[in-house]
Amino acid sequence: MPLKGFLASLTYQRFVKSLAGVVAVAMSVYHLVIPFVGTPQAFFFRGSHLLFTLVLVFLLWPGVKRRKDAPGQGDYVFLALSVVTILYLWVNNDRLLERFVFVDDPLPRELVLGTLFTIVVLEATRRTIGASLSITALLFVAYGLFIADVRPQAMIETLYITTEGIFGITLAASAAYVIVFVVFGSMMERTGTGQLFMDFAVALTGRTAGGPGKVAVISSSLFGTISGSAVANVLVDGPITIPLMKRTGFSKAFAAAVEATASTGGQIMPPVMGAAAFVMAEFIGVSYAQVALWALIPAVLYYVAVFFAVHFEAKRTGLVGLPKEEVPRLRRVLAERGHLFIPIVVLLYGLLQGYTAPLCAAVATLTCVPCALLRKTTRQGIGWRTVWGALEDGARNAVPVAAACACAGIIVGTVFLTGGGITFTAFVVKLSQNNLELALILTMIAGLVLGTGLPTTPSYVVMAALLVPAMIKLGTIVPAAHMFAFYFAILSAITPPVALAVYAAAGLAQANIWEAGWAAMRVGAAGFIVPFMFVYEPSLLMIGEWWWIVFTALTATFGIICLAAALHGYLTRVLFWWERAVLFAAAIALVKSGSWMNDLVGVVLFAIVFGAQKLWQHPGDRVTAVTKANP
Predict the structure, then answer these.
(1) The CA-based dihedral angle spanning residues 443, 449, 450, 453, taken in that order and rounded to the nearest 10 degrees
(2) Cα(362)–Cα(183) distance, rounded to whole angstroms?
């Protein structure tokens, strides 16, 4: 379109949309360049990241919903406050670095700007992810001011002009790690990798019993390696897998449950995990590659549990796979699109060689388009618009995470200032009566409850600040304690009453939300055992001798399969009630590893059930046979 014609058609809404697109692309480019040139000083780097975020929030998430959803005067006031408050930190950076915290009193203007800045962050968080996290942060501030008797000046000082509050480790993780990986995922999706994952999963399992459900599990785990978001995973995979599951006999609720549960696991699937994993690396003080290594076996166990839950449910109800003509050949899929795996290989190679995670992600992002251009089958439609769209999508997708991390900084800063973590640790230890099992159950419940109102990252942050120290004091090693909290912060996405992944999947399946939620709990039930496994057996986090790591991983996998069979009532045929009970006992013995006796008991109990399966036929098998004959 000629420039004159474009200007003539430029409405206010279109101008705002174009401006937001330019800001989003600039944000992505800025964060892709940083790993190559080096990270600036904290206030400059984290401040620029947050400034990009706040500008996009007040351009794209108007406070008052209008017919065209365009920002109004109030939004521009918030936008101006964002610029002024962060610019003040940049201009006065040297003085702020040289002052003594809690010794040199903040200037009156800093107290005013700090108060306004905190309000801006709370409002930005409310607009992007809802009011729950903002309310939680306000409750922590109220605790600090009215119960812990913290001076308001000290509160504002901590939150605004130190790196212990809003500009703390949670925002640092978002700025250094999260956005680069989100942009990488957007670039992979735009260049066709999502279709590769889907075709690859269909080729592997499409024709087996309950094939579409297994396709959802495999494709969601693959997409999870580049996404790290449960809801995004559902919205990409769900429109394809859910109709396939329904067409082959899955109920609406079960189809939604499978997709939601499989997609939720993407947040614990390396190499690209959820945002909380990057925060965890900052909390513990280790590399992201180390966190990904710890997460590998638990992630595999989670997906084994979900896969076999689908398999046993499909066999029990007599569900079949897809017709042969609808299933692509694996060799053809790899020949036509297999080269799109190269960026992931580049990312993994860089991490294994010890390069920083942001640099690896940035390099892998730069390889996406060249890889797509390698073959004619993936070259079509790739151009500058692909790159622009991926950069824009990446920044927009990172905005809610960045806002949540900034708001979580209010919580962390308050806990730091009040010493609330120490107080709460003593309370949990006393409540659990020095019993680790009880402390783990309390932490699990807290994670699931927090997750009903908070996204994964702030939910993990709260547990890391308040509950993880108690677990460590009771004998849990640091990686296992943090992974335990991380795991249950994630599983809240499939736990009613507020289960965001289930909501998204149920909407696609047109299923009842409560039915889908409870079905998701049943599909993912075996996965709920995994965190307890690696607390008692750290070798599942790849800590210890390699031979013991392999042995415990194998016994844990076997135990998870037994547990899935017991919960869904099928092994090689429908299970009698006593067989389910014995198989459940076998699963517990195998899952609670670390002892040859436990493993031996588990194997013997499994052998008893397996032998009984071959000797006696269950009356329910006749129902299954009829279902298979009349799908």
Answers:
(1) 170
(2) 9
